[in-house]
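Lab notes, practical 5.
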Amino acid sequence: MKNAELYETHVKTVNLKSAVAFYKSLGLELAYFLEERRVAFFFLGDSDKKQQMLGVWEVNEHEFVRSHFAFKVTLEQLLGIPTFLDAKGIALSPSFGLDASQPVVHAWMPAACYYFSDFDGNSLEYLALLDQEPKPELGVLHLSEWEKDFQ
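Output from the prediction step:
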């Protein structure tokens, strides 16, 4: 269905206790923990609205497959991500051949992003949609380069 929204996504871990601590450190609210199934669910955004969830499933090492997902934030929030993650001992990751000194912009969307990983090596991203028109011909570039085109 075209107008469906993503309600939940899932990621795997080899250590559920550590994963729960990690996602709680990002400010996610633990919604439900099923010890017998080795899964934890977190609400994303306003937990009163229960609009989105993240499921974290513990698997053994031979079942583990890395994945990727993004958290949508405002541009103002995105600009604070380096400080936020650094305070938690989480390093930003270079992406698309660019260093993590500033957000990278996917010009086809357009969206500004920071990438990082959880302790299992899952690729995580904070993403802010930008108000300008897409410019796919620019590829991926740092935010400061993107902004030069709109000054």
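Observations recorded by the TA: The longest strand covers residues 52-58. The chain has two domains: 1-65, 66-151.
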